[in-house]
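B., you asked whether I could sanity-check this one before it goes into the benchmark set. Here's the sequence:
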Amino acid sequence: MRETACMDTFCAEDTFLLGRKIGEKARPGMVISLVGDLGVGKTVFAQGLAKGLGIEEPVVSPTFTILQIYESGRLTLSHFDVYRIADIEEMDEIGYEDHFYGDGVCLVEWADLIKELLPEDACKVVIEKDPQKGFEYRKITLEGLEV
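And here's what the prediction gave me:
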């Protein structure tokens, strides 16, 4: 069984910094599934991850393009947003296997929608809100990742 850790963040900067720490420790071939509702901070986490990889260019969620590749860091970041995937076969058309089984880091937003395609050793990040703890509060569960 893989290690699971839960963390609390209380502002977007905390979520960004957590992503950055993970990016700093990321290794070649790592696939990270990122799960959470709209507006929980998935893109903020992705921006932190990219920063930790040494990527300086702006990082945005590839909602309409599905895949954005950043090659300027110490490892290539393949950033997927599969929210708009209507049919799992669309992932084949994109050539997802080249990214999932490549030498860079692969981050997949809305990964629960394509879980059957994810490698068995994919790490997982789940971001959840709890309005009772505040508007900015997030509970972040990490599986298979060290911070």
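One thing to flag: The mean pLDDT is 94. Otherwise nothing jumped out at me.
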